Amino acid sequence: MNLKTAKIISLLITMTGAIVLYQGATFSWLGDQQGYEPQQPIAFSHKLHAGDNQIACLYCHSSADKSRVAGIPAASVCMNCHSQIKKDSVEIQKIAQSISDNRPIEWVRVHDLPDHAVFNHSRHVTAGLKCQQCHGPVETMERVYQFDSQFMGTCVSCHRTHREVTLDESGKPLITSESTAKKLMASTDCSVCHH
What we know:
Blueprint: H1 3-22, H2 46-52, H3 57-60, H4 75-82, H5 90-100, H6 121-126, H7 132-135, H8 152-161, E1 164-167, E2 182-185
Antiparallel strand pairs: 1-2
Helix pairs in contact: 4-5
């Protein structure tokens, strides 16, 4: 390799590095969707529902304490209230039309882990974790966005910091500080989330 070729290669490497550093704010690692705030088909305000009206997360995301996934509420859940409240609103009319057409609302997923990672909502919800620990202050969000990067290190750090889960006599998590109950340690074993 002659000196001219070496200088060209060196210049290309330097320019590539400069571009990567310059683009650093827009470059994202696998699974990093922090700040992602997609437009949804219905202008749904978590601030109004979960914040101002204090509707519990489990009312709409009813499988979060029973299943791996939190679930998206059926349009009929919305209409439990909205058949009487604000039923003439344009957004509520979209929900009513969805039911009338027997067509689900196509919500855009906000929190989406990479395919090689598994998160079980029921294990965490029944252990007493608040939704806000992972999802941030959802009750203050007009439109939900991904609050945290949800990198593996966040989960591992939480498992190392909040390791003890109290169980009752039947083996179910007990959300008290009863000292006579058995303790379960949160796992940091790779196979718990990667299987």
